[in-house]
Amino acid sequence: MYGAEAAKIYDAQHRARGKDYRGEATEVAAQIRRRMPEARSVLDVACGTGGHLEPFLDMFDDAEGLELSEPMLDIARAALPGVKLHHGDMRDFDLGRTFDAVTCLFASIAYVTSEAELHAALRCFARHVVPGGVVAVEPWWLPEKFIDRYCSGDVVEADGMLIARVAHTVRDGDASRMEVHYTVVGADTGIRHFAEVHRAMLFERRQYEEAFTAAGLDVEYIDGIQCGRGLFVGVRR
């Protein structure tokens, strides 16, 4: 989960690095409507700062978001005034209503810590869609696609800041462990440095599909989209 320092630069650095939120949201909306052409409402779980939720507002009559990180949610509230944004955990939230579709993107599902929690999250998603409704989940890297000891880094300029980011990702049992260091330079703020560690589960395709099926969802895996990680799309029976 992202902390306050990372939340402040989250959108700026991802957009500057080429993250195409609108393009990804358009693809996900198309996948939803291939299965439910009349879909009008969507809940974006782990919506973060609202990067995908913002374009969903143009694609659905009713779009809401749910996020566990309060710093991320604060930024989303400022960016999307008037939009219903809920604080909650993907494993056990209850909004008291259903939607035509539930999405969970940018590999956020991998922040659960076990296969049991994966099943709990999918059950929760399924409870929040109508019969015939769609659940779309972007996984973290499948084990066969994961690159152990992966190093990455870049420097971008955005929102009046220079942001340097370096990351090192290793396999840690049935998960990946990514250590990320940031150096942020601003004319008024000077130089600051902070680091975060993110642990993401490396579930197999079979484990995702079993969790969808157990939750009462007929699932299909679409390879190649969403930055190459693919997308699991399920329809509630």
Descriptive notes:
One of its GO terms (molecular function) is polyprenyldihydroxybenzoate methyltransferase activity. InterPro entries: Methyltransf_25, SAM-dependent_MTases_sf. This is Methyltransferase type 12. The protein has helices spanning 4-16, 21-35, 53-59, 70-79, 115-127, 205-214; strands at 41-45, 62-67, 85-87, 99-104, 129-137, 150-158, 161-172, 175-186, 190-201, 217-222, 231-236. With 237 residues, the chain is α/β, with parallel strands linked by helices. It folds into two domains: 4-142 and 204-236, Vaccinia Virus protein VP39 (Rossmann fold, 3-Layer(aba) Sandwich), CATH 3.40.50; 150-201, CAC2371-like domains (S-adenosyl-L-methionine-dependent methyltransferases, Single Sheet), CATH 2.20.130. A hairpin with a 2-residue loop joins strand 7 (161-172) and strand 8. It is globular, with a radius of gyration of 17 Å. The two termini are 32 Å apart. The model has no long low-confidence stretch (mean pLDDT 96).
Fold blueprint:
Elements: H1 4-16, H2 21-35, E1 41-45, H3 53-59, E2 62-67, H4 70-79, E3 85-87, E4 99-104, H5 115-127, E5 129-137, E6 150-158, E7 161-172, E8 175-186, E9 190-201, H6 205-214, E10 217-222, E11 231-236
Parallel strand pairs: 1-2, 1-4, 2-3, 4-5
Antiparallel strand pairs: 5-11, 6-7, 7-8, 8-9, 10-11
Helix pairs in contact: 2-3, 5-6
